[in-house]
């Protein structure tokens, strides 16, 4: 069963649309999918609602299997490792320097504060993804804020990645064996 | 793609630098070998990893990166008693406040240098994973909010744990003139600190593991910008 609503990927599609038009679009998308697979749906539910709270975790799996079993594609553990590795790197290895400038106590407060803000921002992103079933930063921005913001975001991402490349080179040059 | 070429060039350029320093006087220091090494790393490691369409396929590489980070953490913890002793015996001077540990100093965080904001900016950068979060949420099985939230919460706990350990132990082991990267602190044991050298090499592995993860979302954005369609396909 297709769990996602496929959104037309035309970049200009959602530009400058009102909220009502966007809601109408998704209602139409829901209706199309229900018509295709109507017999599998409970009346009044969206397709994706039927996936909620069902089979999230296989209760027959033992704790050891959950912790040390094979990491499958799309699994919770695989996704967590992918997310963790995005945060690790040279940034976290420069934290002791920040501690020496701020003091240890203020540094720990700063870590907790930053983690809270990061959680909040990721929560907003996750919730928006879940609501609109769009898992693409650009598309989501275009959908909610219009094409101009989408293009701006793409350019920002390009600059961000370019900055990362430069930063990696600086780190690589500075690390002495 | 030009971006891909630039990205991968950036990827193997730092490999070249570190390995050049590591083995400068052998065959590894010769130009033809450096070129072959750089090309080999780019061709057989970085480009294939960057071209993977499904980000969940990178889970093993990410796991390798996390394990290498654990090596650094364990190394810092094991060496910390020696470094702390060294600090108290050789660096600490009772009458000189510049050699004292700053356990909680509100004023230094908000003086004219505004170190609190500088440090918090570094921390925000360290925590940043929003760009790569979308492909990860997309590849997650049954990607509804409940499971997305599990990924977010566990990732942040993991990150906080690692950051706290590195920050606290890294600072306590070298509190005065702390280097920008904790791996670059001076060796107090005499001779070559081979374990820390391996730690520096593992930093390169971590960055190698990060590259494809970052690149995936970058590629999607570029395709969206140029083609108006971010679907990853071999037919374009």
Can you offer a commentary on this structure?
- The complex is a heterodimer of chains A (177) and B (236).
- Chain A contains eight helices and no strands.
- Chain A has 177 residues and is mostly helical.
- The longest helix of chain A has 29 residues, at 104-132.
- Chain A is extended.
- Chain A starts with 18 loop residues before the first helix and ends with a helix.
- Chain B is built from eight helices and no strands.
- In chain B, 39% of the residues are buried.
- Chains A and B meet through helix 3, helix 4, helix 5, helix 6 and helix 7 of A and helix 1, helix 3, helix 4, helix 5 and helix 6 of B.
Set down the secondary structure blueprint.
The complex is a heterodimer of chains A (177) and B (236).
Chain A: H1 19-36, H2 63-68, H3 76-87, H4 90-93, H5 95-102, H6 104-132, H7 137-145, H8 147-174
Helix pairs in contact in A: 5-6, 7-8
Chain B: H1 2-22, H2 31-50, H3 59-91, H4 106-109, H5 115-127, H6 130-139, H7 145-173, H8 194-227
List descriptors.
heterodimer; A: about 180 residues; mainly alpha; about 65% helix; extended; disordered N terminus; B: about 240 residues
